[in-house]
Automatic annotation (TrEMBL):
GO BP: ketone body biosynthetic process; L-leucine catabolic process
Keyword Translocase: no
Domain Pyruvate carboxyltransferase: 1-270
Family statement drawn from the similarity comment of this UniProt entry: Belongs to the HMG-CoA lyase family.
This protein's UniProt keywords: Lyase, Metal-binding
Protein name listed in UniProt: Hydroxymethylglutaryl-CoA lyase
CDD domains named in the record: DRE_TIM_HMGL (cd07938)
Source organism of the structure: Pontibacter oryzae
UniProt cross-references to Gene3D superfamilies, sorted A to Z: Aldolase class I
Tree of life domain: Bacteria
GO MF annotation list: hydroxymethylglutaryl-CoA lyase activity; metal ion binding
InterPro entries, sorted: Aldolase_TIM, HMGL, PYR_CT
């Protein structure tokens, strides 16, 4: 079972700039917990995501010497991939690919066709530099733009990613509209059909619906989950102030109640929870 902690997703929508030292201090707390991966920053245009303009500087302040966690950085084009790939500390490059044409344009200023071409180039960069590409299928459970969506469309996207030999695909409930039914359908069909791909769940949720979503993904065989402590962050397009990231502490409680050993340092987890208040409140 892998839990990916996402301080980048929690921070990126905050308008007031969080000082570089504060970001690094918080992420260093997270690195002590034992999460499989920390989604720590992004190499994208500062005009698009001003909060993440100091990602390289944050990286320089991270202490990886006593951490088992891997680092993931989000990129939106080949230039960002080349920049991120220069850093030996980074293991994963994450690219958001949307099944919604409207959201792909809004998120990366590209059509889906252009994004797929960029993705092929980014995969080549990853292979050349020893990184692993994580492709997020955003709007993977529906969208607010009246763009067509169905589970067969998502499956076709995965087929195209498989042709590129993408090894990690995370289905993203960008606006918190996933139901237990379509979560179950997608994971239960995709996981056995593409056994060589690791599928993850990046689920945005309200405080009252998180458990049914995790339950559905877990029952369908998903073994990789993204979260953010206290559920900070989420997608501003959600149009619902209660929709945020999946609270990591809820994931921890859920899996431990299922008897899953997550091998987390609980003292470090509590310290990180306390440290989050200084960053986000």
């Amino acid at each position: 079972m892998k839990i990916i902690e996402c301080p980048r997703d929690a921070m990126q929508g905050i308008s007031a700039f969080i000082p570089t030292d504060a970001k690094a201090t918080y992420i260093n707390h997270l690195l002590q917990v034992g999460f499989d991966t920390i989604d720590f920053g992004s190499f994208v245009s500062p005009k698009a995501i001003p909060q993440m303009r100091d990602t390289a500087a944050v990286l320089d302040q991270l202490d990886l010497s006593a951490s088992s966690s891997k680092l993931l950085a989000i990129i939106a084009n080949t230039r960002g991939a080349e920049d991120a790939a220069q850093h030996s500390q980074i293991d994963y490059l994450g690219f958001p690919l949307s099944v919604s044409e409207t959201f792909q344009q809004r998120n990366t200023n590209k059509s889906i066709a252009e994004a797929m071409q960029q993705l092929a180039e980014i995969q080549d960069i990853c292979v050349r530099t020893g990184k692993t590409l994580v492709t997020y299928i955003s709007m993977g459970f529906g969208n607010p733009y009246k763009d067509s969506w169905d589970v067969e469309t998502v499956i076709r996207f995965v087929q195209e990613l498989d042709k590129l030999q993408v090894k990690v695909v995370s289905l993203s409930d960008t606006i918190g509209v996933a139901s237990p039914e379509n979560i179950s359908y997608l994971f239960s069909h995709l996981i056995p059909a593409f056994e060589h791909i690791e599928f993850g769940a990046h689920l945005h949720t309200t405080p009252t619906t998180w458990k049914e979503k995790v339950e559905a993904a877990y029952a369908a065989g998903c073994q990789r989950y993204d979260g953010a402590l206290r559920g900070y962050g989420g997608c501003p397009m959600a149009k619902d102030e209660l929709v945020g990231n999946m609270p990591t502490e809820n994931l921890v409680d859920f899996f431990e109640n299922k008897g899953v050993n997550l091998n987390l340092n609980k003292t470090a987890l509590q310290a990180a929870m306390a440290a989050s208040e200084a960053v986000f409140l």
